[in-house]
Automatic annotation (TrEMBL), chain A:
Pfam families: PadR. Residues 14-86 form the Transcription regulator PadR N-terminal domain. It comes from Planotetraspora thailandica. This is PadR family transcriptional regulator. PANTHER family: PADR-FAMILY TRANSCRIPTIONAL REGULATOR, TRANSCRIPTIONAL REGULATOR RV3488. It comes from the Bacteria. SUPFAM superfamilies: Winged helix' DNA-binding domain. The lineage of its organism: Bacteria, Bacillati, Actinomycetota, Actinomycetes, Streptosporangiales.
From TrEMBL, chain B:
The chain crosses the membrane at residues 78-101, 107-126, 138-160, 166-186. It comes from the Bacteria. This is Uncharacterized protein. It comes from Planotetraspora thailandica. The keyword Transmembrane helix applies. Keywords: Membrane, Transmembrane, Transmembrane helix.
Length: 112, 193
């Protein structure tokens, strides 16, 4: 899937990847890839700035842990993040339903 | 696990533009990716190339961090608010015949210089695409300049015997709001993300 197709939906996808619990940047990317059978494989480097943006917006919170001698920053959803994820899901379902209806080839209402 | 020199080279390229804590976070992700690729491919050189290709080039990653930086965000907001605040003050000052106020020419010049420099710094913070530290410093300088200017205007109005004017209310409110915006944003700008 092309990256530009994700425009406007990346935040919701990242929030969804954190719904089950805290993850670090690479694990978020891997979770998205696994959840979509490899169809959504974001460049690792682009996931991190997006996570920082979400953290500044208060939708996720980050904390440092040490794993295998390396410092690792993990992120988890905040309450605002959970609300935003629910909103993203609702918006997507509405959008997908409208576009699916239009693409099905049903006749358009006649105009005067 | 020892890391590959290609990975270290990539991290050094990122470290030239990004804060240390960001590079530390990226290091963890890049090494994690390298270790996954090494397990899959069984060859260190191929694994390093694959991990770097998957990660993205340093310029693209740096530019994404610059776009997401708190400094750029505050600079955009201050530049967008600038004309509104400026017009509010212009209306209030003209209505109050500011040219008759006993303010020395050097002070007027200093205010003009601070305004010009602050706007210039904010524009630099918004336009710079690849140097995170430049964005941070320019935004900090610009935001500080704006706050100093607003505080000076507020102090001037309080100290000078200017008659009360209804036009002063929106100007004062705009300046107070802008100073508060800067005060709230500064800790985020100076903290290492």
């Amino acid at each position: 899937m092309r990256a530009e197709a994700l425009k406007g939906h990346l935040d919701g996808l990242l929030l969804a990847a954190l719904e089950d619990g805290p993850r670090h940047g690479y694990a978020v990317k891997e979770a998205l890839r696994d959840a979509t059978d490899g169809k959504l494989d974001l460049p690792t480097g682009t996931v991190y700035p997006a996570l920082h943006r979400l953290e500044q917006a208060g939708l996720i919170s980050g904390s440092w842990v040490v794993v295998a001698g390396r410092r690792r920053r993990t992120y988890e959803l905040t309450e605002d993040g959970r609300r935003s994820l629910k909103g993203a899901r609702d918006n997507w379902q509405e959008f997908a339903a409208v576009v699916s209806t239009a693409l099905r080839g049903a006749p358009w209402p006649a105009t005067s | 696990m020892a890391c590959h020199e290609l990975i270290e080279g990539h991290l050094q390229a990122l470290a030239r533009s990004l804060p240390a804590s960001v590079v530390e976070e990226l290091r963890d992700g890049l090494i994690e990716s390298y270790e996954d690729q090494l397990e899959r491919l069984g060859d260190a050189e191929a694994a390093a190339h694959a991990a770097i290709a998957d990660f993205g080039d340093a310029d693209t990653v740096t530019a994404a961090f610059v776009r997401a930086s708190p400094g750029r965000g505050i600079a955009v907001r201050l530049l967008l608010a600038g004309p509104v605040v400026g017009l509010s003050w212009a209306a209030a000052l003209i209505a109050g015949h500011w040219w008759t106020w006993p303010i020395s020419p050097p002070l007027r010049l200093a205010v003009g210089l601070v305004l010009g420099l602050a706007v210039l710094m904010l524009i630099v913070a918004v336009r710079e695409r690849h140097h995170y530290r430049t964005v941070r410093l320019a935004a900090l300088a610009g935001a500080t300049g704006v706050a100093v200017l607003d505080t000076t205007l507020l102090a001037t109005v309080v100290m000078l015997p200017a008659g009360p004017s209804v036009l002063l209310v929106p100007a004062l409110a705009a300046s107070v709001a802008r100073v508060l915006l800067v005060v709230r944003a500064v800790p985020e700008m100076i903290s290492d993300p």
